[in-house]
# Entry
Amino acid sequence: MTYFKNARPVWLTGREKEKNCGAGFICCFNSRELSGNNLVLSIASSGIYRACLNGSFLGHGPARAAHGYFRVDRIAIPSDLLQENNILTIEVISFYVNSFYIVEQPGFLQAELQCDNKVIRFTDADGDFRAHILKERLQKVQRYSFQRPFIEAFRLEEGFDDWKKGTCGSGEPLCRQEDKQLLERRVPWPDFPVLQINQIIAEGTFDSENTDLPVWQDRSLFEIGDTLHGFPLDELEEKVSLVMDSCSVCSLTSGQTPSSPGDGAALSDHCFFIADAGRNTTGFIGICLECTQASRVYITFDEVLLNGDVSYNRMSCVNAVSLELKPGKYCLETIQPYTCRYLKPMVLSGSVNIRDIYIREFKNPAVSQASFSACDDSLNRIFEAGRETFAQNAPDLYMDCPSRERAGWLCDSFFTARVEMDLTGNHLVEDNFLENYLLPEQFPYLPEGMIPMCYPSDHPDGVYIANWALWFILELYEYQGRSPQSSLIPALQKRVDGILAFMARYENEDGLLENIPGWVFVEWSKANELTDGVNYPSNMLYSAALLAAARLYKKEEYRQKGFQIRCKIREQSFDGQWFCDHALRADGRLVRQSDATEVCQYYAFFFRTAEQEDYPDLFNRLLEDFGPERTARGLHPQIWPANAFIGNYLRMELLSRAGRPAQLLKESREYFDYMALKTGTLWENTGDYASCNHGFASHILHCFYRDILGVAGIENNRIRLVFHDLPLTECQGTLPVSGGLLSIRWTRSGSTLTACIQAPEGCRIQASCSDGLQLQTRIQMLIQHSSSREKHK
# Structure
């Protein structure tokens, strides 16, 4: 496919390997040059970009790809943005440091403006775009986090953005870069709605000279070197976290009547206010302010409040934007996306009048057709929180969180992929996610056969999670069901065989993995401390991955090994009551340790090492004694509790498999409603001490559709519905399916459940009730024209 006719990749001459280099590209055109209304801007870049036309926001990108590959965005420009004389600007930040978010590659921009396939403007060394150095952005700043590149810090004077009006002169010299391997974007163009921050909920004063406070020993500030790239501490133009560490609150008053920044919020020296966006959201922070004297302002932000205040580093990242201002009026928007509910502008010196604060949201738009509602407000809150969580974590690939890392993690992706199909009716994000793992010839710094724990990303420290690669195989197996004709399935056999060959090197005399190298991860709980020796949860996962690979690629040796490992785990791990987490060597002999975790039991049943009929006492004990109230009831204190990631979600699968949807409904309220109430998103952990917006957590939506609404399965045009005995009188929902929308509404009266079902013409509906209910159905087949599942295959 030809993505550009005339455009070539370019960058500032000699600066393509410069860290945190910002460039603004500009071209002008007259509307009389346009031969029609189909005006399209095509863009590829190695860093991140923001495009605007006549000062109006067009978009942010690109969609990420594997090392050496670049996805091309095609932005349809609305005709109502056009003027007689037009100015197109593209700001690009080339980070050129290793990260989990944007991979380390030389800077470039390749852009072309076409109207009805006629090239209007294009990039080249002597092309139509002029370049401007973004001097207002401080270049030598600290990293945002270990996982992400640099923070944003600005030194502003009036007219800093005059270059966007075409007044930057002849521009900086550009040099053509080597041709790039280009790919289609594939995933939907994001939504960028503007969320006004219209409530100031607190105000106060602070001291900035408190040298007795502890300094946060951030590794991404103090450990810059050969494996973590950035600017050394002594080269930084601004040390934001050190400034923040010296600040302490003197007074903090919650507003009795919240006011709005739009009223003109004046902040003087060493004053702040806290604004509430109303919910956790991800996007670009915008602020409009003015000052009559030189001022220094820091905008800190976070997802939650700690003791009524914003903590800039609660998540081990620098949630702060620095502004150094000369007198004047300014409107500024970050080019990087951040996640927050609360924003706290702090004036370190001077005085400012803040006129407006907003967040331009950045999320997947394809979730709008799906819906779910029941006669239970808590379920509805959880669903909307899950939908927001998915949308913010799946703009171009499945991310763990949209804040600290923005990384495409394995395991998380297994769960998020199910939700994409439910909410959007397609698997476009998953296509990109899996394709990224296919494209590289090798993964530097990792052993042969191993794949990165998250990708696209850089891992010069050589860290990997070997057992996380096994989740990749399980996801690929389920992906075959979502996209049975995909060419990715045969193409990725080389990755699957490589992973399993790597793991086989660590099998002991029983065929079990022992002393797995790298970082062994089970879940965020005590289970992660019990991974040495023979880790049985990892072996349960290994067995399931082998059996999945056997089905995918018809390999009998994988099937036999998978079953053998399953049998060995049953022999060794189960102590008569519980599956224990690990075994260690004593005098050369493998000895089972007594430690047992809740999540290990869930691993056993989820991966079918254990079945209900073979371990009925344990199965029933898990159903009856465990759950959100187990600790309060004082039951089985010797069994270490599970966390949200991933034990509580595996528990939801256990309840579903056990045919206990009413219990799943009840426990989902207790596990997730407090999260929905506090942030409007779902969390990484059961507490708010880490990410409060984690992509995998949206998986509860899959449970709601399956176990509450009753959508037991969708395969091609066959839709299987199973309705359950639930403490609800009504429930309704819609899902995109092949040919249009599947709409279900059921009501319950006594022992009779009445279901009204609308589905696209050609679908085959099989409906039944469990638990002895009487079912009445009304089915209407509709001719519909949207075909979300079908058209994207």
